[in-house]
Write a structure and sequence with these properties.
- The complex is a heterodimer of chains A (956) and B (287).
- Chain A is mostly beta strands.
- Chain A contains 1 helix and 85 strands.
- Chain A is 1% helix and 60% strand.
- In chain A, the strands form 21 sheets. In chain A, strands 6, 7, 8, 9 and 10 form a 5-stranded antiparallel β-sheet that branches. In chain A, strands 1-85-84-83 form a 4-stranded antiparallel β-sheet. In chain A, strands 2-3-4-5 form a 4-stranded antiparallel β-sheet, with no helix packed on it.
- The two termini of chain A are 23 Å apart.
- Chain B has 287 residues and is of the alpha/beta class.
- Chain B has a single domain (3-280), classed as Rossmann fold.
- Helices cover 34% and strands 20% of the residues of chain B.
- In chain B, strands 3-2-1-4-5-7-6-8 form an 8-stranded mixed β-sheet, sandwiched between helices.
- Classes of the chains: A mainly beta (956), B alpha/beta (287).
- The interface between A and B is large, with 82 and 58 residues.
- Chain B: It catalyses: cytidine(32)/guanosine(34) in tRNA + 2 S-adenosyl-L-methionine = 2'-O-methylcytidine(32)/2'-O-methylguanosine(34) in tRNA + 2 S-adenosyl-L-homocysteine + 2 H(+).
- Chain B: It is found in: Cytoplasm.
- Chain B: One of its GO terms (cellular component) is cytoplasm.
């Protein structure tokens, strides 16, 4: 074997364990332990503790020592204080137990280990085994926790079928078997006094049991899928946090009289399926959750949410309109035209303050708006005022018939009348009429000298003084009313009532991306009146500002992070409101709304004062990554496609993939394959429902955007509801797509470039069917002066078609060759064209554990292709070879299998050059970028490849 | 998606209902037997983790007429012609006796198991639990199998499967990993076909069932520790004719006039049944 080394540099995998310890938070991610200073949003260090096993649990031993376990492995980690502010993790030797470790506990000088066969093992501090404890209940455990004090040593074991078994380590007697759940017990935790346990299960419920009295205290229902974790929040055993397969974390409160757990809060932050891990910092009232998506989130259970309720009888008549500014001051207009302003005594506390009626009143039914700290009010008849700090700054007079208005800067207003639209300049009381084309204006903003308007039809208009203008239909959906326009660097973000948002270039208004504001599946009964704000807070994963959205969802106003898709705040307000206003300052959100017969002013800190950022780690996809490819024009940019139906375009920075954009609005089922066009301008993605989607990828301001260009029109002739795109290949303007019904189609992709939009016209040139079996790989290959199709499928055969063009609109594919290679499905295939020998080398990796290299050459006399097996290894891996990649610069063939091995082979001789273990499960795709190897599956890992020649190069 | 759409999508699912099988997994056993012919000439057969009973149905059809079929599961199994069903725990020592009683003390020719745990999505845990189930089935199998007998079980072809191949190789002369065409290529599921059972001195299945040591530890204790180099790859066999339906392929939808067939047997009550009912009653809201 030659000298190849794989050095892990990035780790974005499911978070399988979390543990708070004072200011530190330990996270088990893959086979590594990562440690954060959670308050400062700072990752201190990461250390690989096990060869392959995942870290499923972490227990504190001392101020400088923790023990981690997972699978059958366990081992110590030391926290080395370098200089008082910098720390490092130092990992000791990995130890193996004879069974799966369910949990560990440290007490006194002893380490206790609970195994999956319901056995407790005592170890001393040098990890010498001292003693075993058993009980009569021999069952496989999914979960379990030990409660150890000087007085009592108990185990609570969560079994597969037999409920929770609580037993005493000293007497080895079973104290109780609690069968309140139906199904597997996925977690069980002790209260701090050891009197109660909380458990969660397959049956989707949470249960609190009083161990001493052998009674069920309460059961909680609310998770919509299996529940993975449940723990008590504090010492009183009254509050419980749970996490589950429904991607939520939930806060429960025990109501002692009703014997039920009431779900008080639902925390939405993770994507995909599972929130695997949970840790609670009881002193700080903070919890951390870690998901299958690799995200680590912090939650503050102390909220400074204040609801100030005013009775409408304070005012002379019914409230017409209400506004709030960044100081928490509010303006109310009444039906009769009176204006009232509320002044809180200081901006930090809105609880005391007073209402003052403005001296100046207007005609009936005035509307109010706020811009920065100024309040604007205009009545339908056209009289209006501007107030700032309680002072009447100016009076407004505009033509009558005012329907709505939008403040675009401190002293300019877009007035929308019944039969006119105009800009009113408050400094000189002038009115400039706008093009009558701009009707139904619902949002406006002024940016860099451009006026940008949004309409109720979903159109955006841009205009400036020098008569340049552009427009675009921004949203096409049913409720496409544009609700906000926000500048963001050299682009604008517009939101629609249907919950979509789009990013548009200035001044062309070219659409750069459009997306649902929240990912499908995390929202129930979408009725988003989306708005966007740019917060001033930054975090390490995001250069520049965070883009936050707010809108109504069911009974609440919710505020969430657009890119990382987590909820920052949810304020119960009874549903969406006709009359409301929202304003932010650097810390707080103010939400002022009419909830007849009351007015409510809610104020809440958007970001917790306890920590810098809610998100400690951004993670990647919540389900398996199926495909990936690096941009041909920028090796830093990588596209990932996932089982979770989304695509991420990310940048590889500092050893992890930072999401630039997550494409949620394209595929409706799993993404199977993706490729860039040669110029890097378009990304094509294939998935379920026969969809092949093209995305236009643009970089502006060093940010990457991708805009949905549409799908091949396969839906029209589809009689197979389960049709999946399995693979495709691009050659010039031709795209050949392989489907799961054994058919393939060749399309031509005509790109039509216009000033502010690009269109792709798909033309079907060829449709053919191989057999009945599912196609798995397809490639256009140009060789021997012709174009060929190389196809491999679940039947283990390579099939070659000769491509013949018949005029402009038709292509014929003639079967040239069918050659059996594998016993079972060919999971991946790659080829090279060897110019010197005029040969194609086709490499295949199979479900049958085998790796084959097949040489193809063209017999000029017979005019046929001759296949020949050059080398094979029928036991290349111990299970399916899921993917392979070729590195021609080193003559390497690199394979990955479901045995979690990565192997390097000489691509010409087939000799094994190196074999490595990866902790990425279900490996779906691998690729090599420069000297890095990216492996994706359940999460992803990036390794630096060091080999003899790279060592030589660096020494030269 | 309702039942009817799965009916339309999944060829094997529909075929199972048409042919009266309780689950599509029946075809996995049929295709395995097509390749290995392990049901030819047998007299005593045991089906472990048998509920809802589709493999037992195949045994009932394909095993020789006078053969004795015993099916074991913790869950009740609805009656099947010519099949003796036992509701029992396969890890309990008494179960061995119960089975052998039905065979009048004669040992079994073949033991099969299609058992799988509820998968969580944590691959390492799922593979561990599947392995434990195979070991439990193996313990029982070696307690009831005759010398030269066959053991067939579902496995997850994950990262530690080579260790299991090596362990099984110490008790069976011939170990093959088989993948029926009716098992989806994208899943880790495969079947281990272990032929020619060769009892080893020191390997005492009854002792193993009675004590609490893990099977891996028992293997190490009795047969010596397993070296990494001893981990082997079992030969791979693809089962089922290429003309059989491909479980990864999509087939044209059945036209609109098609009426979905009722399931042969409704599923046993799932753990989340209560939660579903409460959701239907409006007691659980999504948010």
């Amino acid at each position: 074997m030659s000298n190849i080394e794989l050095i892990p540099i990035a780790n974005q995998k499911p978070v399988t364990s979390l543990k708070f310890f004072g200011n530190l938070l330990f996270a088990g991610i893959g086979n590594c332990v990562r440690v954060y200073l959670w308050r400062k949003n700072k990752q201190i260090d990461e250390c690989q503790v096990f060869e392959i096993n995942r870290v499923h649990g972490i227990e504190i031993i001392s101020d400088t020592r923790v023990i981690a376990w997972g699978g059958t492995s366990y081992g110590f980690l030391d926290i080395v204080d370098l200089d008082g502010t910098n720390f490092k993790l130092k990992c000791e030797q990995e130890h193996h137990f004879t069974d799966w470790i369910v949990s560990m506990k440290f007490w006194g000088h002893t380490i206790y280990l609970l195994s999956a066969h319901n056995e407790v093992c005592e170890l001393d501090e040098d990890l010498e085994i001292l003693k075993y404890h058993h009980c009569d209940e021999k069952s496989i455990l999914y979960s379990g926790k030990l409660y150890i004090t000087d007085d009592v040593r108990l185990a609570a074991a969560g079994t597969v079928l037999n409920g929770i078994v609580v037993w005493n380590l000293d007497t080895e007697q079973v104290i109780g078997v609690f069968k309140s759940h139906k199904g597997v017990i996925f977690d069980v935790s002790w209260s701090s006094n050891g009197k109660k346990i909380v458990s969660c299960s397959d049956d989707r419920s949470i249960c609190v049991v009083d161990v001493a009295s052998n009674q069920i205290d309460a059961i909680g229902w609310g998770h919509t899928s299996r529940v993975w974790r449940a723990q008590f929040l504090g010492d009183d055993s009254k509050t419980i946090i749970s996490t589950g397969e429904d991607c939520t974390a939930r806060v429960w409160e025990l109501s002692p009289n009703e014997r039920v757990l009431a779900c008080r809060r639902t925390l939405n932050a993770h994507q995909g399926r599972n929130v695997w891990s949970l840790s609670i910092n009881a002193e700080e009232h903070v919890a951390a959750t870690g998901g299958g998506d690799g995200k680590v989130m912090l939650w503050d259970f102390d909220t400074d949410l204040k609801n100030l309720v005013f009775d409408m009888s304070l005012f002379d008549s019914r409230v017409r309109s209400c506004s709030v500014n960044a100081k928490g001051e509010c303006m109310v207009s009444t039906v009769e035209g009176k204006l009232h302003i509320y002044y809180p005594e200081d901006s930090s506390s809105t609880f005391s303050g007073q209402w003052i009626e403005c001296k100046k009143s207007l005609n009936r039914m005035p509307l109010t708006k706020c811009f920065r700290n100024r309040f604007f009010a205009i009545s339908p008849v056209g009289d209006g005022v501007i107030y700032s700090d309680g002072i009447l700054i100016s009076e407004i007079t505009v033509p009558k018939g005012v329907v709505d208005f939008h403040v675009i800067c401190n002293d300019m207003i877009v007035v929308c009348g019944q039969d006119y639209n105009a800009i009113y300049d408050c400094t000189n009381s002038t009115l400039k009429y706008l093009d009558p084309e701009y009707t139904g204006i619902t949002a406006a903003c002024l940016y860099d000298g451009y006026l940008i308007l949004g309409t109720k039809r979903g159109d955006l208009y841009l205009t400036n003084d020098s008569s340049s203008s552009s427009n675009i239909r921004a949203f096409d959906s049913k409720s496409n009313v544009i609700t906000s326009i926000t500048p963001l660097g050299q682009v604008i973000v517009a939101t629609s009532q249907s919950g979509e948002h789009g990013v548009f270039a200035i001044p062309s208004l070219r659409r750069l991306c459009k997306d649902k504001s929240r990912r499908k599946g995390t929202i129930d009964g979408t009725n988003m009146e989306g708005n966007s704000i740019i917060s001033s807070s930054t975090n390490v994963y995001e250069r520049g500002n965070n883009l936050l959205f707010y809108g109504f969802q069911n009974e609440s106003l919710v505020l969430w992070h657009s890119k990382y898709n987590y909820e920052l705040e949810s304020i119960e307000c009874g549903g969406s409101h006709r009359s409301y206003d929202v304003c932010f300052n650097d810390r707080k959100m103010f939400f002022f709304y009419v909830r007849s017969p009351k007015l409510v002013l809610s104020s809440v800190s958007v970001f917790s004062p306890k920590f810098c950022s809610s998100m400690l780690s951004s993670g990647t996809h919540g389900r398996e990554i199926r495909c990936l490819e690096v941009s041909p024009i920028n090796p830093e940019i990588i596209a990932l496609g996932s089982e979770d139906t989304t695509i991420t375009i990310g940048k590889i920075v500092d050893g992890y993939v930072a999401a630039e954009c997550v494409l949620k609005n394209g595929h409706i089922s799993a993404v199977q394959c993706l490729h860039w066009t040669a110029d890097g301008r378009f990304l094509l993605t294939g998935g379920g429902k026969g969809e092949l989607i093209a995305w236009e990828v643009t970089t502006i301001d060093n940010r990457v955007y991708a805009n949905l260009m549409g799908s091949t029109p396969i839906a029209l002739d589809r009689d197979i509801s389960e049709l999946r795109v399995m693979a495709f290949s691009i050659f010039m303007d031709l795209v050949v797509v392989a489907y799961s019904d054994s058919s393939f189609r060749i399309w031509s992709m005509d790109i039509d470039l216009e000033s502010n939009s690009t269109n792709i016209n798909w033309k079907l040139l060829c449709k053919q069917k191989y057999m009945e079996c599912c196609l798995l790989n397809i490639d256009f290959v140009q060789a021997w002066g012709r174009l060929w199709l190389l196809i491999s499928s679940t039947d283990g055969h390579l099939v070659i078609y000769r491509i013949k063009k018949r005029g402009e609109s038709k292509i014929n594919a003639l079967m040239e060759l069918r050659f059996k290679i594998h016993k079972s499905g060919i999971r991946d295939a790659k080829y090279i064209f060897n110019v010197t020998d005029n040969e194609v080398w086709y490499y295949t990796s199979g479900d049958d554990n085998a790796l084959f290299a097949t040489k193809l050459w063209f017999n000029e006399e017979t005019k046929h292709i001759i296949p020949e097996t050059v080398f094979k290894d029928e036991n290349a891996h111990t299970s399916s070879l899921t993917s392979l990649t070729i590195d021609t610069s080193h003559n390497w063939l690199i394979t990955a299998g479901s045995d979690q091995k990565v192997r390097f082979w000489d691509m010409y001789t087939g000799s094994l050059l190196g074999s490595f273990i990866t902790d990425v499960c279900d490996t779906g795709a691998i690729t090599k970028v420069a000297n890095k190897l990216v492996i994706a599956g359940v999460g992803l890992a990036i390794y630096e490849i060091k080999s003899d020649d790279s060592v030589q190069k660096s020494s030269n | 998606m309702g039942k009817s759409s799965k009916d339309k999508r999944d060829k094997y699912y529909r075929k199972a209902k048409e042919e009266g099988y309780r689950a599509r997994s029946a075809y996995k056993l049929l295709q395995l037997n097509e390749e290995f012919k392990f049901l030819d000439g047998i007299t005593n057969v045991v089906d472990l983790c048998a509920a809802p009973g589709s493999w037992s149905q195949v045994l009932s059809k394909c095993a020789p007429k006078d053969s004795k079929i015993v099916s074991v599961d913790l869950q009740p199994i609805s009656p099947i012609d010519n099949v003796i069903t036992i509701q029992a725990d396969i890890t309990h020592p008494n179960t061995v006796t119960k089975i052998l009683d039905h065979f009048d003390g004669v040992k079994a020719d073949i033991v099969i198991s299609d058992g799988a745990p509820d998968v969580t999505g944590l691959h390492d845990l799922d593979e561990y639990l599947q392995a434990q189930l195979v070991y439990s089935a193996l313990q029982l199998a070696t307690a009831v199998l005759k010398t030269g007998g066959t053991f067939v079980a579902k496995i997850f072809r994950g990262r530690d499967i080579d260790l299991m191949y090596a362990q099984l190789g110490r008790l069976f002369a011939d170990v093959t990993c088989a993948k029926p065409r009716s098992s989806r290529g994208s899943s880790l599921e495969s079947f281990i076909v272990c032929r020619n059972y060769t009892p080893r001195p020191g390997w005492d299945p009854i002792e193993l069932i009675n004590q609490r040591m893990s099977t891996t530890a028992y293997f190490a204790n009795v047969l010596g520790p397993m070296n990494i180099s001893e981990r082997v790859v079992a030969p791979f066999a693809s089962c089922g004719d290429l003309s059989a339906y491909d479980s990864d392929a999509s087939y044209p939808d059945i036209s609109g006039s098609y009426k979905p067939l009722a399931p042969t047997q409704t599923p046993i009550s799932p753990a989340y049944q209560n939660a579903l009912q409460m959701k239907r009653d409006g007691l659980i809201k999504r948010y």
